[in-house]
Amino acid sequence: MDPAPPTPVRRHHLNPCMLIAHPGELEVTTLLGSCIAVCLWDPSRACGGMNHYMLPLWNGEGLPTPKYGNVAIEKLIEKMLQFGCLKRNLIAKCFGGASLIADATDLMQIGARNFDVAEELLAIHQIPIVAREVGGQRGMKVIFNTQSGVAWVGRFAPQAVLPPKPGQK
Amino acid sequence: MNQHETILVVDDEPALRASLRTHLESIGFTVIEAENGNDGLKRCIEEHPDLVLLDINMPGMNGYEVCRGIKAHPEVLDTPVIYLSAMLDTCDMLEAFASGGVDYVGKPFRYDEVNARVITHLQLRRQNRQIEEDHKRIQEALSEVRKEQLLLIDLNEHLRQSVAIKSHFIAHMRNEINDPLGAILGLAEEIADPRNGLECARELANRIKAEAFHLDFQLRNIFCAAELEAGEASPCITKVCLESVLLDVTGALAAPALEKAQTLGVDLAKDIQFISTDAAKLRIILANLVSNAIEFTPKGGKIELRALKTEDFLQIEVKDNGIGLNKTDVSIIFERFRQLDTGPDRAHKGQGLGLAVVKALVEILDGQVSVESEPGQGSTFICRLPILPQSKNPDSFAFDGNLFIFDEPHEL
Predict the structure, then answer these.
(1) How many Å separate Cα B110 from the centre of its chain?
(2) Model confidence over B127-136: pLDDT tens digits?
(3) A79/B contact by beta carbon, under 8 A
(4) Which residues pair with B240 in a beta bridge?
(5) Contact (Cβ atoms closer than 8 angstroms) between residue B21 and residue B9
(6) pTM, whole model, 2 decimals?
(7) A70 contacts in B (CB within 8 Å)?
(8) Which residues from chain B sit within 8 angstroms of residue A124, using beta carbons?
(9) B405/A29 CB distance under 8 A
(10) Are the CB atoms for A121 and A103 separated by under 8 Å?
(11) Domains observed in chain B
């Protein structure tokens, strides 16, 4: 008898300002410009999650949503802990934070500022950043497998303009 | 029997004193002696015995005089005095009682009689003292109750005023909510009307936006005030980019300022990019101060929002060149529901809630708010917030039940 065909991996596209964590296998994709995606993975439980935030710090406007780095990272850690992960087992991979405008002023360096928040908060939680692909002037696509922890990153070609979808950076 | 009770024996006959001492000590009293009236009075005042056995006929000061002396002294006047006397006729007896004695024992006396009388009077004295003490305690309790009652009367008056202010406030607030809501409904109907063109719709939508903004602002203040009133407001400290908050507030209020042709400037010192504070509360504080400045500054005025670092404080100033305030006004503007110009024809919007909310929020953040102003010279509101050390615990957003932010996997 033939072995049962392997079940296809479930996939999920993560939109900006959202986050997802999954206890099983899930292939999460997202598109990044100056946004940051932090992937957390627990090797001992083989589960992981990813967020996608646009701005570094919540400024009190509206609700504290994962649009802001300090909310998105806390919430992702919280979700991982709910799956039974231990904080000391978690590792992080960070992507994005490109600066798409060549000569942006200080406040406009959103990409760099976004990554600063990730570095700072992960350090406070003592979660090591084991891989990163941040900065540069081109956006990227990230595919992250929540079970294997493998993250695949593809930079957009230099001449490629970001797809003009609203809300995606 | 109380072992610690002391009896003073005043008699000029040493033998009698000695025999009384022997007897009284044998049943557990402490005995002190005096051999004449002067000495007796002195020892009584100095040593505060619990009872005095007093001879009447003594050289020098006699018993009656000693007794009057004791009764005249405030510290020992309640000491019972029992006379010891060879014989007392009715006259002497009356004199004895008139001078303040409580009893007498005839000489030659029997010890059991002395015993009985001494014990009786000591007991009476104890009971008297107990009663006095109880009385004193009751008086104290009563005065305490009276004090509490005064407090309650005060509190009641305060509550009464508070309720009056609140019903006034609710009447007021109804207008504040109904007016923009009515305008929004009316404008929306205009848009829905097929006879109106698209160009018109854009204009109407802008007006709806302005009204809705005002409504949103008022509702936020009301909810914030309700939360403060319920004592549920607590600071949620996170790292905040000050510039982002300042720009966000001025951006949100740019439209009303533009309508009055006011300039709205932001001046942020370089050394305070990031602070640890409650972002939402800081935003409400600044939004209220700036919106007040816009409201109370005439057309073409100038409003400036400055943030700087002084010692250990973050100082945020909102300066306008508007109508200003006089001294008495300065003292009441931070009270709830207080707008200086009241009445149906008042010129300014709002329920007078903004500054009270500002004050309460600043205080929750351990800061102070003050105002410097002269009538006609504009006002400067100054918030001083402590610069907190960088938060070591970034979990401020954790576990607040916002589950809607989590994505669920779905097929791509």
Answers:
(1) 66
(2) 998 999 999 9
(3) yes
(4) B275
(5) yes
(6) 0.62
(7) 238-239, 394, 397
(8) 392, 394
(9) no
(10) no
(11) 6-109 (3.40.50.2300), 155-229 (1.10.287.130), 238-397 (3.30.565.10)
